[in-house]
Amino acid sequence: MRDRLMVALDVPDRTQALAMRDVIGDGVGWMKVGMRLFVAEGPQLVRELLRFHRIFLDLKFHDIPNTVAQAVESAGSLGVQMVNVHTSGGLAMMEAAARAAAGFPGMFLIGVTVLTSDARSAEDALRLARERALLAKKAGLHGVVCSAHEVRTIKKDCGEDFLTVTPGIRWGGQDKQDQQRVADPSMAIREGADYLVVGRPILQAASPRQAADEAVAMMASSHG
Description:
Radius of gyration: 16 Å
Largest sheet: 8 strands, parallel, barrel
Helix content: 40-55%
Number of helices: 10
Structural class: alpha/beta
Order of helices and strands: EHEHHEHEHEHEHEHEHH
Distance between the termini: 9 Å
Number of domains: 1
CATH topology: TIM Barrel
CATH class: Alpha Beta
């Protein structure tokens, strides 16, 4: 289960990112680098993190097809194991991204469906996530980012081998903060999620390694 847990390194700089990596150690298989950290520190930090963990480069590319394809190629050349685009960019953009990603067989290309902070109703979120997941599959993506509440439907429509990466993970009475559609680690795995992304519940814990271990234990308890 550790290989299915991603820690979102939502910290401001290299010093804090490497310190968190050292604290968590082999407690997780993946680190996620998002816009804040990447803009601050760039590709060199990603290369440093790749020495110890697989990396999900979470930059949510959304632009004209050629620009997105070139960005995906750059991510592949950097050596990351996962990168994402916004499915709202449309079929042509995602197809261009998929063609670029095909040159890097060790890298997953996934599409963001509906952000877990989106305040729309659960019914609307499910409908839109399903539509966008089907479009991502048609375009040749490996999977999508979605909340745990949409995983089961997406797996049914797109196939069990279509990856689902699930943020919005909370447990033990933690504050939802800006997240709307949340789930605990056990529920997310039970619903069929392939990977869980956890940020603040681990980063802000008194012991980040202990929090990561707790998440892994909950994931394992679901026998997913």
